[in-house]
Target: Class I SAM-dependent methyltransferase
Amino acid sequence: MNILQSKLEEKLAGLPVSMAIEMPQGGWIGPPDQAQLRIHCRNAAALAALAAGDVGVVGAAIVEGHVEIDGSMRDVMAAAAALVPSDPVAARSTWWSRMLARSRSAALHTLTKDSEQIQFHYDVSDAFYGLWLDPRRVYSCAYYAQPDYNLAQAQEAKLDLICRKLRLQPGERFLDVGAGWGGLLLWAAEHYGVQGTGITLSRNQHAHVNRLIEEKGLQGRVRMLLSDYRHLQVDEPFDKLASVGMFEHVGRAHMQEYFGTLKRLIKPGGLLMNHGITAGGTDNEQLGAGMGDFIEKYIFPGGELIHVSAVLEEMAHAGWEMVDTDNLRPHYAKTLWAWSDALEAQLDEALAILAQKGNPAQAAKTLRAYRLYLAGCATGFEHGWVALHQMLAVMPDGSMTTGSMPGAQSQYPFTRDYMYR
Model:
């Protein structure tokens, strides 16, 4: 324990925030009355993980109640980022690890497992998400077109940016793959006059959006289906597609099937907006320092991040032509901090909502997991460990006369000024 204590004392000296650690057997490392952040360790394993910089393991210990924290989540994450011993995206894969990862990806993304995994995350509680999301419950990266935008304004700016990039027109058939609580689907219908279809695997989201469709009088113009994208059958392909915050759940082994399915659903010459989280490293299977394992266990079972270069390659293999790619990474950091701050301001109410399912101990675990997840992801985006890309692609129709320029073969004008007018 003396060696471990010496190592921890050395770690504490280099942190950007003052921290004190309560030892399992009693006593403190660092003065607790002067610390911005106090860590109460209940077992030696958590203490060893803290010394090693295995922040994902420490996070799991917090969720399970073996470690308690006193301090703001911003201070927690400043300390966690400093404790990570090396670049968490620097790991290099081998042919063997890639083969294992692909086999695991294939096994994790069957139709049944995908449905279970989506419901594990999104059906926690609509009221819980409603506490810290914007009023439209847009659960994806906002767009801070103006630095002083609040979260609601930034989310509306993101919805409108996607609609503009897709050049949505009245009467067009529009599909939102993984439509969440309907923010984009309803915005596109109300502001751009599309005939909208959304799909989700979450029963809570499906019921919520159908209530909104009825309340807004959009029956006949908008529909929300409880369907896997692979099962969706349509009489006529769509003019435009959007997939926002969804393809992270597809899995590397199913990327070809995913983009191939979207190809089946689009008209020749149509546009696709693929908006989602991408890996910060080109070769790592997941985030290091235990962070990937934490997210897999407590937040997004089956989630997989792929570098944008690999996503674009998979897209090209399916016949899509990338026409615009936009990295919004810092926007997602700001979005996540807004979510985190909103949750931190309502912890008692959040716990009461989660406890309505009748298991107070599980409710407390879920809340601890989400507190770490939101603030931890904000930190990851700030540091560039993960990124967020909007990838606009077209499905060329093969005609040299389609579009505003010879050879466009699509509705895309091959200029970008229209996106920001």
Summary: The chain has two domains: 3-83, 100-419. The domain at 100-419 is CATH 3.40.50.150 (Rossmann fold).
